[in-house]
Amino acid sequence: MGNTAVVVGAGIGGLAAALGLRRIGWEVTVVERARILDDAGAGISLAANGVRALDALGVGTEVRAAARGQYTGGTRTPGGSWLARMDGTALERALGTPIVGIPRATLHRILRAALPPETLTIGAELTGLDHSSLSPDRVRVHLRTRAAEGSPATESHLDADLVVAADGVNSRVRALLFPEHPGPAHSGSTVLRAVTDRPLDLPTDFEITWGRGAEFGHIAFEDGRAEWHAVLNSPPGIRHADPLAVIRGRFRGWHRPIPDLLDATRPEAVLHHDIHELVTPLPSFASGRVALLGDAAHAMTPNLGQGACQALEDAVVLAACLARHDRTADTADTDSTDSTDSTGVLAALASYDAERRPRAQAVTVAARRAGRMGQQLSHPAAVALRNAALRLAPSGAAVRMILRHADWTPPSLPQPSARDGRSVE
Residue 397: what pLDDT? Predict the structure, then answer.
């Protein structure tokens, strides 16, 4: 086919997009500004929609083998009483898979391993996009590359039929395409998280505990270690010399296994990030021959565990739209084909925007509301009212809430050939 794409960003969404594009026969280059891929991050939960997307991209089996199903757990109070229990078995019956937990580093490695090594270019920072100097059906990506800190920069460019912006919440591409958009806003919360240094004997696969303006949760991994996260109401920019000590103090007296998780953590392993989101929705997930994907398009709070899942959905739908419209362009009468869109890219991106933007932006709003009624709630009376409502809710309410977002079926993608991973009809 000869179609070429540049994916900006080698996170979960960018790597998934590259897999989807290669699966439909595109030549892909992924550019990543980091010079060292240290796979920093803690853990991640993937609901059925995320796992199904990985199946469509051809890596679901590997991810399932490395992940741990979240069958037991739920939501608790700081004293340890249960507000709601999660039934992973019921979710598996309904959707074919429970929620699964996996280290982010492991997921990154699985996605990268499914791509040819030459696909990825690291240490390359995007400095601009240019349509004007090329024909209307190409876009130029300007890059600045440094081999090491302090080394001279090398300027270069790549020309492509498509650019996929998967460069995160502070997306440079989004700022170039939508200069009037206000960009990400601080959510009012900050998160500290880590992976334990050793396995623990945990009683549940997954838990969240809500206090006043604070949340502590854990995800158990297949190897016995666990990710924990602590989310606090906080203004942006506050950092601590000893964040683990701060967490110990803030959650002192909370139920087990919270103190056990902290005891199993090295202080230097704690990551600290303020949580930002796109409160002002984008008017489109596409501009010209550029598609926005994942946090670049719809950064959301983590309260529903849907951020990565929505990025994976983006990747599959983008590939499916391109495959569908490419076939349409191939069979269209020459006189009726737009000369600036001979491969159907513009039509495909219009379909991608129409399919993805309403759903992803609705999930973004739902996540924000979940945070306000969950972790961010701080008034004692409001917390007591919420807790009472959760205790009185029917036993299947938690499953139904998860199904609302996780029950998604991906479009089918062409099967790759055994020779080189390109699609076959």
Answer: 85
